[in-house]
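User: Fold both of these, please.

Assistant: Here is the first one.
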Amino acid sequence: MKIIECPRDAWQGHHPFIPTETKADYINQLLRVGFDTIDFGSFVSPKAMPQVSDTAALIKQLKVSSGGTKLLSIVANERGAEEAANFDETTYLGFPFSISETFQLRNTNATIADSLIKVERMAELCSQKSKELVIYISMGFGNPYGDVWNPEIVMQWIEKLSQLEIKIFSLSDTVGVAKTEDIQSLFSTVIPQWPDLEFGAHFHTLPHLWHEKIDAAYRSGCRRFDGALLGYGGCPMAQDDLVGNMPTEQLVEYGKEVKELSNLDLQALAVAKAMFSELIT
């Protein structure tokens, strides 16, 4: 069971600006925990997201050891991808590919068709730079805009994008609308259909629904889960202030429950949790 910790998703909309050194201290503590991957920053427009405008400076202060936790940065276009790919410390570039036309326009100022062209170029860049592209199928379980959604649309895009040699897809419940039956249906279909691909779950959730979402995905074969300590952050378009990221501490508890907890340093995790509580107050 892989846990991807996402401080970037937690603090990208937070105000006021968190000093780069403070972010670095926190992420360096997360690196001691032993997560599979840390989604640490984003190479996007500083005007769009001021909180992550220091990602290039931040990465230089991180203590990444070879063979340990890997780093992932989110990009929204080719320019950001080119910048992210120049850092040896970064293993993964993540791109939010929405299957909701409305959300893709709002989130990246591009249509789905335009975004496909971007992904093609990013995939080529990643191949050249020895990086791996992770595609987040955002609005993967529905959307609040009335755009057509069904599992077949999700699978059509996985089929098309996988032809670009993309191997990791994270199905994203961007606004916390995923139903248990849809989670089960999607993961139990895509995992056997594409056994050479890795599928993850990036859930946003109401506090009382965390367990059923993780459980539905896990029991349908998913072993890659994104989370953020304290469930902080999430999508501002969720239209419900209680919808946040999947709390990492709940993912850890679930890992204990199914006896598949990876080798995490729980003491280091407790320190990180306390640091984050102070960081956001």
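And the second sequence with its predicted structure:
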Amino acid sequence: MKKFLVLVIAALALAAPRAQAQDMFNHMALGATLGVDGIGLDLAMPMGSKFQLRAGYAIDPIAPSFNLDLGTFKSGDKSVNLNNVPLSLSSWKSGNGHLMADFYPTKGGFHISAGLFINNGKLFSAKADLSKVLDKQNWGVGIGPEGGFTVSTDQDGQLMMDVKTWVVNPYLGIGFGRAVNKEKTFNFVFDMGLMVWGSPSVHGYNYSKHIFDESKPVEDVLINGDAVKSLNAQAADLLSLLGAIPVCPYIRFGFYFKLF
């Protein structure tokens, strides 16, 4: 699936007739975008009358914070109550770059788009401040459900978790509007389609060995449905469902200003 989409994208990018390539740098537009990947900036340029290229970068500035009840875990011979833990959540923390090719089959604004989104592969990053509920001597001590996975905080008492996807996400979709319109200074573009991100997986981290010996790496711990089944059946079902969703619906609005 991934290879097929990459081939489609390459075909769209290369399909513009060479005779029309002379228009490539004659016009350019700058756009502000709002979509699933956050808010961003776009640069767009035409390649003849039927093709346009767009490249841009977006960030999600919203990082919600709330308190979370994580239940009771084992820490050595002790039971640790991890309720009312401050937690912050961010998506695509390093931002999301993209390259998109638009094909216009008619003179109107309807277009078919194919592209690639590139990010750090972390759809969501969560940080739980266990320093608020754990004694300092327990920071870096492994915790987890009996018979399950083991994670720990870093040296500052922070417990990190990530939802990981592919670093490169192919995109296919349709839309309306032209980012670069020779007749208008301001233009509106709407896009919708599917971003392919693979099979999302949840990862925690065990800093135990690293804290006591910095030469040892931080252990990446895969947390799937089987790992939490004994702790919470509902959470196990949600994790299994998450891993079975290979695509993400994508919607974006763009407002473009023709530079020249």
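The mean pLDDT is 84.
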